[in-house]
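User: Mind token order:
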Amino acid sequence: MIFRPALWAVALLSIHLATVSSAGDLVLSQSNNPKAELNEQVLAMLGQERQAISGVSTEKVKRLVTQPTRRNLWFKKPEVVEDRYAAAYVDGLPTVKGGKAWHCLTEALYFEARGESVEGIFAVGEVILNRVDSPAFPDNVCSVVHQGTGERFRCQFTYTCDGRKEVISEPAAWERVGKVADLLLRGSVPRALTDGATYYHTKAVNPRWARVFTQTASIGYHLFYRKEARYASK
């Protein structure tokens, strides 16, 4: 807002004159005053300005002399978009406990991706749910996670056939992956990270199938792949 000095001065003079009028009429004595003529001119000018401003509403004068607040500014603060792949967002969510599907997905994310960024955890979760949706794999989370469990070289997720007992030793990590699992199962976050991938592997290995499948993403320590139509059979 641009302030107009003239209107500002007029407003202040109006307030001053109103105060003086309430106490009595303003009188400049002309006796023994060599500048009586100048005083008359000043009074005349003040009277004209007072008359002019009397036609302006009090509300308008108030608007002219009041510094605008942020609410009156023409721009608005942009909306804050929550980054659901940010650790701060996920960790700030309430602790989650779910059913069988949630537990199977949480367990898989814990043992397969707990050392990844939140984005990396989501990406592994996408692969599992993409498999559930694919006719080439079982149609539920637990069956996908435990497909081939206990069978050497046939298990789909290493932790289910490495001979080690599944022990949850990092409660904070379990809580985080559980929240990610919940968001994925509820569809609160779109599966947009891996472009439909149904396979992944760590960058430390180079499986044969990776040479013929289409790589769709590289996130954290994992590479993600999609099996094209010509390789549709398991």
